[in-house]
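Can anyone check this?
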Amino acid sequence: MSKITLLRHGQTDYNAKGLLQGRIDNSLNRTGFAQAKKAAEAIGQVDRIISSPLKRAIQTAEAFNKEIEISDAWIELDYGEWDGKSVASIPKEIWEEWKNDPNFKPPKGESLKNLGQRVRSFLETLDTDDDEHVLIVTHVSPIKASIAWALGASDDIAWRTRLETASFSQIHVKAGTPILTKFNVTNPL
């Protein structure tokens, strides 16, 4: 049985301010670096690390002191013109439309359905050895899509889940079947 640990990057200044950062390539802040170190201690030994190409994910992955594979499949949802905006600045009716339609795209952005397809495609073709522990350092939306994959749920599950910065979730894969074993673990972070 292989194990996939999905780690959300540590905190950035945008996270602390409640701003959407999507594809904006921000660095971790001081809190984020401390969170990454604690997450590495909590997760322990991994055999392989795959990371989003964005700086905040790579900096989090570096806390494990191991070679990092970069994959565009794990980049955050493209918020398009909403990148850098506060959640509060998006009209409530637009949020409701987005929550009710997985095909909804922010202006010049990406839909949850498209993100879900790229994440599922990666997970379904991930080549692992038995008992291999793969760490994927990524962002909130790809992790939620991974959880939907593990549970056999639709992409709109994203609206019913919450992930803290530097939290991790785990999926065990046995005989090709994903099993969610941990979700949004921050303790002892």
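Reply from J.R.: I decoded it. The radius of gyration is 16 Å.
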